[in-house]
Amino acid sequence: MKMRTRILAAITTGVLVMSGATVSAGAAHAAPGTASSTSAAAAAIPVGASFTTVADLGVVGSQTYLYQPSEKFNPAPMLTPVIFVYSDLGYASQDAALDALSGLGLVDLAEREKAVLIVQTPVGGAWGPGDVTVYQDVLRYIWGGNTAASGKPALSFFRLDYMIGEGAGATFINEHMTQAPNVNRIAGVATFGGAMPAVAQGSALPAYIVGGQPAAIDYYKSANEVDARVGGRFYNADNPAKEVIVSNAKSQRFEPSLIEDAYASLFSGTVRQGLSTPVFYDNATTTEDFTLMERPDLDALGLTQILVSGEETGATGQPRWYEWVPDEVLRAQRSASGKTYPLVLDLHGRGDHEIYEAESNGWIELAGEEKVIVVAPFDTATTPVVNMLEVIKAKYPVDTSRIYMTGYSAGGRATWAISSLYPETFAAIAPMSSPGSTVDAGLAAKNDLIDLPTFFSAAENERDAVQRPNASFPVPQVKVSNLNALTTYMRLNEISPPTTFDFAQYGIFGFPVEQPRDYVTRWDFLITAGTLSDDTGVPMMQIATGRNLDHTHYMDYAPIAWDYMSRFSRDTTTNEIRYAEDSELPALNSIQATGVTKGVVVQPAFDPAVTDYSLVVPGSVSSLNLKATAASGAATVSIAGRTPSTGTVVERVPLGAVGTSTPVDIVVTSADGIHLAYHVTVTRQG
Fold first, then answer.
1. Fewer CB within 10 Å, N- or C-terminus of the chain?
2. H-helix or E-strand containing 270?
3. What CA–CA distance (Å, rounded) separates 56 from 58?
């Protein structure tokens, strides 16, 4: 089974005063329409936690129990797991439900993961369509934004909603929660026993199945379009978040150890992201099928997440910041090897959290894959960011010629503002979907002194960076303040700005770009990007449009922005920008397995532009030689984190147990220090 590193860090936050009945250590509060208890069992929850009965949600007479951990919204609502619990017969009382949750380890899990627990009881004593109505009203009840001021008892963005069911509760999940629109918000289920009624094939829904009928296993395999297998894990090779884990256990009822394993091996690694309709605008009433994705696995990526807070922040003015540091960087730091690494500053939007920004826009994943240090601060104002940057440069082996900055929404606006004051600090910037721009007027005086390569993106259907059609704007167009920022940076980069704009012909930006290219991303949303070149032909700017996306983070923005930004570096003495042509970028000429059975080759056929491969070997093979050849004789190659060498490199790689997969990274580095990571997943046949 795959295990995932949990990336939620503990941050002390305020506690909401809830409406409704609350049972907490040392106190109980009741309100109309709710029930409360003060029994010894009910009081045995952590200080600050609460357990509430909410009556009449969806159906008059319904009873729904709500557990909120002692640290609420930690680190943020969009990162709060919500676990729905469907027992076989429901629980007769609030106390009985709390006793059950405690005995199953769910209270401990909720405290550790800062998760909310929702316990439904069957309407009329048997699970059925009425309980679907209750579920839908629960979503409206727990939906919310960012602060306690909203008055919401449990805030959720529906990204991390999961379900566990046993017996008749598992049957309820199989019959009703696999169907639209219910399935559209669920990122994973764990079922213990239960039947599989004949239902229509629904959307993909990751599942952990214990004691399930063959029909249930087949249903979930089909829904997730699985085409690959490692032991008891079946998954879709194109989108591994679509997976089914079949336990060898035969349990028909909840078991604490299996619930824990379901959370660790499935729930903690899956997320459902609203992309066409942002949930913070349209809440639980939308019917969009949120896009199923994998969350970053820090162990697999070779990353260490570090929270810097309190006194550790020094005199920076930052309350806190997060760092994602490749293990290779930490080794280089300890050994004082002298090797340096690129740095990306990632600025979050208004109301967003640093982890959410870095994860959902793809920067955590990119940090591990490309060996880049990524840092996300809480305060995106200029002075705290600049002060923090100095600390990071002193702390890690940063390549000061390759410092980049990006930000989404309000973080994009902050990227414009900071870079306009300190353009010489950065090799390139990538403001994304800024709702406006604040560009320092003094930047114009530097037009003949400095360049700053710029990537800017906006989604065509969004409602922040783009002006939607109305009487003044007959077609969608990027907001005037963003156009002003773009034309300002065109002048900075010695590009002649357009004098007229045609938004009907050229889309939301209103002007043509060079070499337009469509990026077909992993989850089928198209991103179209084109460049603007200076008079020497260097593409000093790139403009990107997210097709059919609203004002939402999207994990594949980061690799597209990085593909552009990483080509640039800045001479720290002269401030001159250097640009790496395609021929100078790192690449491999081949990846081969040697010393194993004839015919064992990487799949798909090697292509220097393709970075992900698989390799299947007989179970008798416990290790193999991987051979990689750099496209440039000046480039170095490192396999599985070993010491880089030039030219052709061969490393002996030990493999995991029979039936498991071993991920192997092959990193090629150009003479200019630009990294490109290839990934080979080696599976020993079971």
1. C
2. strand 270-273
3. 6
